[in-house]
Amino acid sequence: MAKIIMQPSGKSVECAYGDTVLMALEKAGYALPNNCRAGACGECKVKVTTGQFDQGMVLDMALSQEERKQGYGLMCMAKPISEEITIEWGTEDAKPKLFPPREDALFVVIDKRQVAARVVELRLRPVGLPIRYWPGQYVTLGNARDNIPPRAYSISNAPRPDGELVLQVARQDGGLTSAWVHDSLQVGDNVKISGAYGTFIGDPSVDTPVLCLAAGTGLAPILALAEAALRRGYKRPVGLVFSARSKEDVYSQGMMAWWRTKHRNFDYKITLTREEAEGFQSGRIDAVLPKLFPDLSKHSIFAAGSPEFVETCVATVKKLGARPELIHTEGFFSQQVQLAGEDDPFKLPF
């Protein structure tokens, strides 16, 4: 059994014989970025400052000889061979480091489809290097050539090896950018993306049941967070409550149903606020939540939607015992609203 020490926090995790550093960190709840898990993409590259490790077989394009000399390694393949190794990863409180945002990264629209009455979903593939991000973050999209201002949209998928981003864009009355996306942007068009931004990522080391609350296109970052947690084998219960006005505003239900079938620890509910329909809850989040989760004292909460929706969520979960330090909305919405202006994707009524 080896020990892996993270700096600058000084926190440590145990690494069982035969496990990679990445496996040990994930078992302890730390979400070190990774994609290929085979030494080919370089996403899990960190510097090892003390101790020895067996790097295994990795591609030079993912880890150059010069980087090896400087002490860097790919943690998806690295196995400790000394009693302790120290890596430079995380912040002083052991939370993930945010990736530096990039400006005007070139992407191609590879798919566009209507997923709800006022929402289209875009699939964007990078032409060059992908944008690195944490689930829950957002990017900006616009078109300077046609005087379409950049607006903020959350990434709705967890990071993928091909760098694909999925954005869900709601049509806003009078919104130039959302109208351009809905009416003019076509499959095959080139677009420029900037980001990723935001701190709506929580603390991956927390080992608690999780409850995600979303309204409108606030579902996008929630989907990314849930997908990332389930994909890395999160064992605690993960619940999701999606609030929509009517059935025609509901989307991604197929994906949520698939997650529920594949992952026994995942479940979801959809509540409608302006109509009643078979198979759906009925009522606003403050009325529905106490019936579904009467005790939230041990849960981590992630809430995304309009500022009014989030305010209602926070007040409601606190009444149900949620601890303030485990309620995640910090910083994300103020940045989104400031950037998004009239095209704020979270302005849908809830």
From TrEMBL:
GO molecular function: 2 iron, 2 sulfur cluster binding; oxidoreductase activity
Cofactor: FAD
Domain FAD-binding FR-type: 102-203
Domain 2Fe-2S ferredoxin-type: 2-93
Gene3D superfamilies (UniProt xref): 3.10.20.30, Nucleotide-binding domain of ferredoxin-NADP reductase (FNR) module, Translation factors
InterPro entries found in the cross-reference section: 2Fe-2S_ferredoxin-like_sf (IPR036010), 2Fe-2S_ferredoxin-type (IPR001041), Beta-grasp_dom_sf (IPR012675), Cbr1-like_FAD-bd_dom (IPR008333), FAD-bd_FR_type (IPR017927), FNR_nucleotide-bd (IPR039261), MRET (IPR050415), OxRdtase_FAD/NAD-bd (IPR001433)
Keyword line: 2Fe-2S, Iron, Iron-sulfur, Metal-binding
Pfam families noted in UniProt: FAD_binding_6 (PF00970), Fer2 (PF00111), NAD_binding_1 (PF00175)
Stated name of the protein: Ferredoxin
Organism (species): Azonexus hydrophilus
Upper classification of the organism: Bacteria, Pseudomonadati, Pseudomonadota, Betaproteobacteria, Rhodocyclales
